[in-house]
Amino acid sequence: MTLEWVPLTAFRRFLKETLQINNVKNTFCLMNNAVLQLQTTYPNPHDWLAIKPEERLSFHGGDRSELWYVIFWIWDSGYCEGEDHEANSRRIDIIKYISTRGRVNLADFPVKLGLLTSAETEFIRNKDVSKKGLLNKLAIHIVSVMKPLEQFTEEDILLADLMRPNDRRYNAKSLKDLLYELGHSNLPGKRRQRTHFDECCDHSKWGRVSEDYRQHLKRSDALDYYMRKAGAALLKFYAWLDKRGEPDASLLEYEDYLELFDYFSLNEEGDKFSSKYIGNSLSFIKAFLDWGNGLNSFFPNHLDWPNDLYSGIHREAQSETYAGDGLAFDDPEFPSLMKKAIESCQPVDEIEALCRAFWLVIASSPVRKTYLLNLQVDDCVLPLPNAPAALGLYSPYSGIEKAKHRNGQFPILDSSGIRALNFLRKRADEHAFRPMWNERAEATYVHLFQLKEFPWLLNEKQIYMFFDKIAESIGHKDKKGKAHGYRHYLITHIAIETGNSALARLAAGHENDTMLNRYLRSNLSRKALLFATMKKYQDGEIAGRFIWRIFEALADDQMEPDELIKALGSEEITLDEFFAKFGLPAPTGVGKCLIQGACIFEAKCFSCHHYAIRKSEAAQAFRTLARLTKEMWNMMQCSRDFTTQNSKAAGLMTQIALLGDMIRHFGYSEDQIQMEIIKQI
């Protein structure tokens, strides 16, 4: 690019016609001296640009400097025009130059140069209520780029961080907020919290390899959760290397990794971490070392990882995960208590009103919290495909669902959730929010929990602060579970009420039964399912040793209620439907065999824990009891040396006693049983 200084006559015309200076003669006279010094020292712009921005000399004529002339030269020559890498480098140079000139006032320049409208200027002045010089900082940025705000690219926006590094009042994030408010962008600024991975990338020795690994994970579409956990494990690994004085991980051997395993196993007080924490942390380290093996001098050429010990830790971690309750509530009364307290809460501000609505929806639908917080306003509630009378939460954006797929219908099970959603939709209409870009959905739309200002969208910190406040007000501070606890709770009750795992899985949004079964295996879920089943026995609707299968499941924390027990506990399946689906005719002629697989008990049904009988079969039970009693009587009469020690006699007596107990369980008295036996005989 060939560059020349602009003639001073053109600069004077600029002062008069464009900047509309009142006393042009005096102003130009002072600036003329400064510009002549500039042109004498740097005969052409190439000489001036060859010097680092912060080292370029300043020239003064009275209280005026060369700055206005340089800005005019940039504007007139088109020095900052273009969208290529070189043009961006030129803009960086100019913004660094202006930022090192001390206190300058360029607030009026953008409007007079046609780069900012009067309406935009007025909006910015009104926004800057604390008088922090927002307009002037923006003006410096605009004249450095020489573009109107609506033409700012991502690279132009990032230049804000060069003006004054770590300035909390004016930076790329605050500029994004401003562009969104002015309608020039659909993406407000994000205040990204510093992570453990950031600290790894800032490490004095291993920052470069950490950044390379982070970029690898991003290219692999690693979830944010994985990135956070991997960063924490990696930082701890670096601390261990530093503690040992290792230059890198290239010399680590089998015995060293054993020490590393011990290091990750204990906290600072010497107490052992959970197997799940140890196993997960070591898996992140192994993945890092596997990635870099042979790729970088930081890593060993051969990874001598203790696979034997690691496999054992991994199995323990899996067992602990499988046996644990996860995020399920540990108190069966808590979910309903909290829901009532949340409904009764009178919000003190808009944030609390949104939090209240959030929790009422969460307590009414088995939806994930991230899905709900990112839900769009339009068509967020639609009739369920297979049940038009029922409503469910819906989004066309697969990215807001976990693992970026959509498998559930998320039914709304309670009217309080419908009312909360109506409140949220009405609020969005009244505020007329502008559509906002959502990174998860990769789409622009008005959000159900959108805000008028930063942070622009209700976040997890706000909803959990509200939850803790309500929990403390009812005496349940620091309660386990929260949003995901309600998900466990509602899915459990869907399984109980329908007796259908497929429906529960659909409502949960699970791709297969594996994760659903983990939900239903939580202590609260197991007991809810099993006690719902036992209620049929307590109500006298069913009898038989099948109840022992329920007792076994209750007593064994590792045993999961099977499909048969879940179906029996359902409120939507009748006993007739249950026995028709699961029961086989018992060899005794009364009751049903509920064995799942081959029978190894032959005809010993009354003492078998696969046997069940309904109250509606009482008449048939009396006939069977009478037949058994008659057989017993005949045996006693026909035998010359009858004894109860006889195996056949003992078996008959046991069957009579067991069947009699079942009939008594249905509410019949001894006299009624005797009368029925005599009648049948």
From TrEMBL:
Alphabetized Gene3D superfamilies for the sequence: Intergrase catalytic core
Keywords: DNA recombination
InterPro entries, A to Z: DNA_brk_join_enz, Integrase-like_cat_sf
Protein name (database record): Tyr recombinase domain-containing protein
Native species: Paenibacillus macquariensis
